[in-house]
Every structure is written in structure tokens, then in C-alpha cells.
Predict the structure.
Amino acid sequence: MGIKISKIFLILVLALFLRSWQIAKLPSLNPDEAALGYNAYSLLKTGQDEHGASYPLHFKSFGDYKPGAYVYMAMPFVKIFGLTPLAVRFPNLIFSVLTVFVLYRLLLLLTNNYLLSTLSAFALAINPWHLQFSRGAWESSTALFFLLLGIYWLYLYLINNNQKYVYLFPIPLVISLATYHSARLVAPVLLLIIIIFNFKKVLNYKFLIAIFIGLLLISPVAISFLKNGGTTRFGGVGITADKGPLSRSEELLNQHSSLSLFTRILHNRRVLYGQSWLEKYTSHFNLNFLFINGDEVPRSKNPDMGQLYLIEFPLILLGIVALLKSKYKHFKQLTFCFLIISPLASSMTFQAPSALRALPMTIPLSIFTGLGLYQLLLVKNTLIKILLYLLYFVSILYYLDSYYQHSPKRYSFAWNSGFSEIVPFIESQKDNYQNIYLTDKYDQPYILYLFYSLYDPIKIQSQIKLTPPDKFGFSTVRQIDNIHFGIPSDIPSSSLIIDASDFEKSGQSFRIYTN
Amino acid sequence: MVKPLLSLSLMSREKLLLLLILLFGLAVRIYNISYPPLLWDEASIGYNAYSILRTARDEHGQFLPLIFKSFGDYKPGLYIYLTLPFVALFGLSSMAVRLPSVLLGSLLPLVAYIFTKKYSKNKYLPIIFAAIIAFNPYNIHYSRGAWETNILTFELLIASFLFFEKKYIYSSLIFGLTLFTYQSGKLASLLLIASLFLTNYSKTFFSKQFFLKFVFPLFIFSLPILYGILFQQQGNRLEVVSLFSYPRNTQEVNLIKSETNNLDYQLLHNDIVFFFRNFFYRYFNHFSPQFLLTQGDWQNPRHSAPYTGVLLFPSIIFLIIGIFKFLSTNYSSKNFSSINLFFFLWLIVAPIPASLTRDEIQATRIMNFSIPLCYFAALGIISTLKFLKKNKFFYLSIKLFIFLSFLLSFISYLDLYHIHMIKKSPQAWLYGYKEAVNYALDSNNNQTLNYFTDFYGQPYIYYLFYSRYSPQQYQLENHLSADTIDTGKVHQVDNYIFENPNYNHLLLQKNRVLGIFSYDDTIVQGIDRQKLTPLSPINSISTFYGYKNF
């Protein structure tokens, strides 16, 4: 027993190490993280967010109304450490490491197999996909922790008949809904499926009360979501934001010389959007997405590798086969359902596959990898084992090299690097110039300025003015005091210009000109 | 009439069903066979067959070659010889060129049926397997054109069946034929023979008799190919398409080196890693949902109907079920059958020839991939039905549901193929060559100088094909020049000059001239299209425009 506990302890140490090493500067803080941090800071100082709303459940931020739970989680750390990248990332760092532990406990509960649970926890601990979203203030990863915790507590009730947890399990699920948009689809559907599979067990008044409490707890979030135009955000990033199927429908209908009712149905835009959904959904299972090239969004991936290690491909296949043969009913049901449901929310958006939104996939995939490793360890052939260890070791080395060496350089633009240096410079020059122009090539530079200059929240609440939303529904701020975001063609004299136009060629983040 | 039908036994009911499937399969393949328009290779196959029939020599004057030089791409000759009787019977037409592929493609479900009937333990698998092949988009698409790869697919299945039957000599002969059928047949056959050895492993494979019956004939067959690769130009084509012959670009190399150092590059980003990443990228593409389900071969619109994959929509679910059903069957259990293992190995090795080439996806090169795909889709349907058999009502409704979803998906495919395929990409499909050549032929006499655009490539072969140009005459002239890497071109035949005509130059001519322009020519030269005759209108443009000064 003692040795087994220390094994998971070592894995947690490894998970923590991989997630926290150089976390304060790698990756560079992105605008979403800065917004979470700055709003926490603003709440601490004034009790209001940057737009002057007091203790909201959704933060207006860039007009995207971010689910608010993460801001509240970050508050104590901002209080302790001050407004720094580390403080903003701290909650997610802790929860991401704990996710590994919850997975371990959950598998132990479902299978009662120490080795298998340890191996799966190990697979998650070193999973590049999960690492990616553990090392930053990504609500997605935090929401996944609460989702998994909720499921674990639910199974504690279902399997061990532990009565306490029937009232406890809705709480983490509610928190996950309050943390991240995608969890709002994935968590309820997963819960529903688990209820259907265990219908007899949950048919009692206690469970109904628990569900009722859950609904009661989530209702303020739901009301706030609807009131703050949550549906317009879906219009911006939802599947209908992609106009492809619409124009394809027109194209196909035009190619018919005469239209029967049947062709009208066949080429109806709803049918084509259905196909488009299917394409987006299945794209999450594209082996190139998983093992070779990864996501298209640089922030979600590492150069020259997939979301997972290529060596895991055979292990996952082996794991799926092993699970199909497995006798543990709950284990089998949960893992496959998790895999099938995880990309649901992601497939409803315009951009798929999305590693960020489909992050819950890492859980079943790690379980499969763990199962695959378990199967291989049963094999007596030492040569295969040594080869496997060696390949795994090289894969991890390749990942570390890709993450720490190549990614900061190749994707520095996507990672908005350089603000931590340029903002103090701007602060030092602020009074020497009438106007300061800062490039708007990065998404929302204003928030990074606010963050790194520790701008007084009271002063921003009175002057903040969002631009009209772009086609994805995001806005930004054009001016704070004498600092302009965006460089006009005719620049007044006595201005400081900070540009990033030559960025990719020069390899530097910014160029500074004076006028 | 009703009574005997009702009293049919299960056996003959199945045979009737099979007959229906085969007939429908044939109908789907042969209906409106002159659609889509002839591609270059098809026209070339037709004209070379015509040339052989008339003179026993190909267009280049070679006497009964095994490998046809054609455009300089060295076509393996079997398809051309298969075309001979049809060209003799029906004359030089697109139907004659396509019939070998149509017929063998229609017979494929029958071979699949016989093969699995004998070796699969499952009663219903053979008929479902046959039905899926008969109505599978991948198979239909390549059966409706003179695609050599479709013949290869047929040969591979029949040769495998004969190997299972232990008729090694016949199996060997047919595997030998694949070498003269299609370029990638060499590797495909090699991989499949390895799979057959693995599944049917026995000690007799090391006997002298086996050697004489199987290995030796195969060796004899491969001699001309080996000779060609080693001593003649034919090996060049391998080089042109191979993944190995395309080195990574130096920009990428420098980027990686600049981010770290040379040691890191040598250790973790070296050429071996690069090769494997590229190989697996291509390999996985052939298992991607886009390829199987929603787009097909996305690099080339000629390789599938638009917005459709190589399988029907419901197949994908059953394919996954089928594969995992196989994988979770214990090797030692009595449910394990070697034919499942064989098709599984086929599934794994089939995309390898395409993954070793420069294209990121290539449906044509690995069309035999369709067979294991259909097999596991069929296995998936069987397993699903078996799983649901307990509840009778549920069972029937699921059966109906599966049938209807396949039917709907199939109708949708037919619509996309027959209505939308050419309209979506008329230029890629070389739409209008027939109309353009006929326009030139109709107004032609010896005094006219004809300028025919070569924008769409190889116009000369369409001229030869549609004018039924005398092969004797052509063999004397034969102007193929090898000025491009991949294939050569012909610049002139008699009074036909194959180059993009210059409109202003034509206007100045006093003699009779005729010009055929492509749509893009008219844009590049800024010609007022009102003054030209649209020869092949499609959508709002015409792929060819004609001009004449008489």
C-alpha cells in the first residue's frame, strides 16, 4: 500500500513539475488571461469589474461575456502575489495537477486496479494536450477538473453507495458550468447519459433533491447568461458563423435546371449544416489532428507535433480493444461516453477541430493509453518493453524541445510575447509625448497594457469604451489616456510609435520609432 | 408466378438477391456511360488500342508493347489490350474504352461474394459485402471510367481468393498480371502477397513445389519490369512521384536550426523523423473522416464526386464497429477466422503505396483500399444486427433504418455524381474537348490552319481520338517531345498546331485559320468573348471558345 501511494505521489510531482516549470514567463500572457487577472484585480480594488459592473457572473471583458468563476478563483492569488502572470495562472495550475489525482481516484473506484489507475494518471500527467492548457489561465482545464470531480463523487454514490456524495456531486458540476462555455453542453449531456445507464439506482427522492439543488445553484448563472446576450456569442463563434454551407446550398440548387421537392430537401441549408456539423465532429478523431499536426491554432499546439505523442497511437488502439473486452461495466460505459461526448461543444463552433474546447477528450484518451501500457506490461517480452520505454522517452524529449525551444520562437506572435518589456517602457515615456501609438496587431493590446502597468481600475471604469464587435463578436479598446491602440496613416508630431509590422522578419516583438 | 417465389428456399432467395445486386450494380455503372467526359489517359488508351487493332503497333510505332509510352508516362499495357475487343466491336468511342472497367467493376461484388461465402463463417456477410461494394461510391466512381486501378482491384481480390483456394499457379499468374495493369500494382501486390503469407502461413511455403508454382512464375512476370526499371527510362516515373525524391525545403530546415542549434536539428528533426512524419501524415489522411466521409480525395476533383467521401455516410459507423469487432476477437477463439485477419492486413497495407508518394492524399493509387473498407463495413452491420437480435421489434426497425439510411445516402451520391460533378469543376474534368474537336473537324479542310489551345493539356490525343486519325499516318509523324518533367507533349499534327492561339495574330491572317481558345486564354488575352463561338457552355462560361475567319 505504502509503495503504491508513493507512486501516484511521484506522478503528481512530475505533473506539477511539467506544469509549473517556468510558468511565469512561458507562455507569454495572452489577452484572455490578462482580462481574467485584471478583472480580479479590479474587483479586489473597487468591487467592480473593468466595465464598472459589481461582482458579475459573466464578465463583459471584450464584449464576449466570459463565464466568471475563474476570476473569483484568481482573486485570492492576485491578493497574495499581486497582479502577475503567476497569480492568474495559479488556480488552473493547481486544478490541472489535481485533475491527474481525481482521474487516479476515479479509475481506482471503477476498476479497483492500482497499476491501471497509476498508468492512466501517468499518461495524463505527461499528456502534451493537457499540459498545454494547464500552463496558463485556461478556464477549459479548470472546468474539466470540476467536471471530473463531479463525476467521481457521483460514482462514489453510485458504486460505494456513499450517501454524503449524492448531495455533494452537483456542486463541482455547477462550478464547471460557471467556469467555461463548452462545459455547459458536455457536463449536462454526460450527466444525463450516466443517469440513463444507472436509471434504477438514481430513481429515488435523494437524487431528485440533489438535481434540484444543482438546478437551483446554476440558475443565477443561467439568468446572467441569457441577460448578457449569451446567444449572440453563439452567433459569433457558433456553427452558423461559417457561411460555407449556406453558399454551397445556393451553388448546388443553382446547378439543377429544375427543382423538385426532393432536391430542395437534399440541398437545404439545414441538411448541409448538419453535414458540416458531422464534418466538424468527426474531425476531432482525425489521426493527423491527434498525432501528427495538431490544432491549427498555434496557441493550442506545439510545432511539428500532434496533440498527443505518436507513440501513443498503438497504445490507444490497444487500450480501446482492452476496454471493449473489459468486464467493468461502469468503467466501459463512462470511458466511451466521455470520448463520444467530449467533442460535442467543440463541433458546434465555427472552428473545428478545437483542442481547447474538446479538452475533455484528454481524459478518455489518457485512460486508453493507460490501458494500452497496462496490456504491454503484461507481455513478457523485455525487448518490446525496452523499445517502448525508449520511444516514450524520446517522444517526451521531442515534446519538451518543441515546447520550450521551438514554440516560443516560432509562435511568439500568436503568444503576444514582448508586452512585459514594452509596457514599462511606455510607462516611462508616457509623460514625454503627447500621443503614444501602439500596434493593434495583437488581439486586444489594451488589456495587456492595463495588466502590466497595474493601471488604476477606477480610472479605467470611467473611460473604457469598446469598439463595435468584429465578425466573431469580439471588441477591443482603442484609447487609454494618451495611448492609442492601432497606428493611423498620418501620425501627429510628438508621438511615440511602437509597431510590430516587421515582426516576423526581424524576430523582435516590437519596433520603436519616435516622431 | 407468385407461388414459386414464395416457396423459394433461403439459398435461392439469397441467389436471387445477389443477382439483383449485380444487375443494379451493372446498371449504376453503365448508365449514361459517356458521362463524365473522357480524360487524357482514357483517350490515349482508346487511341492506342485502335492503333494496335489497325497496325499491331502503338502510337509510337512500337510492336505490341507491354508498356505503352503514351505521353511519356509509360502506361502498363493490360488495360489497352482489354479494350481491343470492345474497340473492334463498337468502334472508337468512350463506351468501348470504358467497358472493361465497367464489366470487371460490376463483377467485383460477385467475386467478393464467392470468396467470403467459402471462407467466412458468417451466413449473411457475403451478401452484405457484395451489396456494399456494388453501391459504394469509391467503386462506382472508378468503374465508370477507364481507370486501370479498377482492374488492379479486381485482380487483387481474385488472386487472393485463388491463393486461399491453394490454386497457387493461377494466383501467381494474376498477381503477375497486376505488374502490367497499373503503376502502383507492384507495391500493392507485394504487400498483399505478404499478407496472404501471414494469414495462410504453413510449412508448404518453403517447399520446392510451392516455389515452382507461385514464386517462379511471379519472378518470370517481373523480369520485364525489373529490366525496365534498371536499364530503361521507366524507372523515372517512380522518381517523379516518390516521397523520397522531394527533399524538405531549406527554409524550413533553417527555421528549425535558427530556433535552436544544429545538434537539436540532427537529433530530433533529422531526415528520418521528417520522413516518418510525412509518411504518417499521408497514411492517416487516408483514414481521415474527410477522405472516407465528406470530401474524398480533396486534392483532385476528378477522383470523386464533390462533397462526398469514398464511402456512403452510414458505412463509417459500421466500419468502426467492424474494425473493433475484429480487434476484440481473441486470436485463439473459435470465432476467429483467417479471412477477417486477411482483410484487416489488407486494410493496413493498402494506403502504404499512396503514403510513399508526394501527394498528401491519392484515391486512385490505392483504390483497392475500397475492398477492406467495404468488408469491415459489412462486418460492422452484421455485428450490430447480431447485437440487437434479441428484441424482435427493435431488430426489424434497425434493419429498416440501416437500409433507408444507405438508400438515402446513395441517392444523394447519385445526385452529386450526375448533376453536380462536372458543373462543380468543368475545367478539371476537361469538359468540352469533344465539342471543340468536332467544331474544328466540321469546318476543316486541308487549307485551314488550326490553332488549338493546349491549356487543358494533351489536346493532340483528343484530335486523334475523335477524328479517328489513321494510326499508320500518325506513327510516321509522331512528334512527342519530352520538354516537361512528368510527361511530354505533341506540338503539331498536320495542319493542327497545339498551342494557345494568339487572337491578334489570328486576326491578321489572310489564309483560312481557325482558333480554339480556353476560357482562361480569353481572359489572359482580354478577348471580347462576344466575338467568339462558345463551344461547350457550362454554368455561366464555356470551357472552349472557337474563332474562324471564314
In short: Chain B has 26 helices and ten strands.
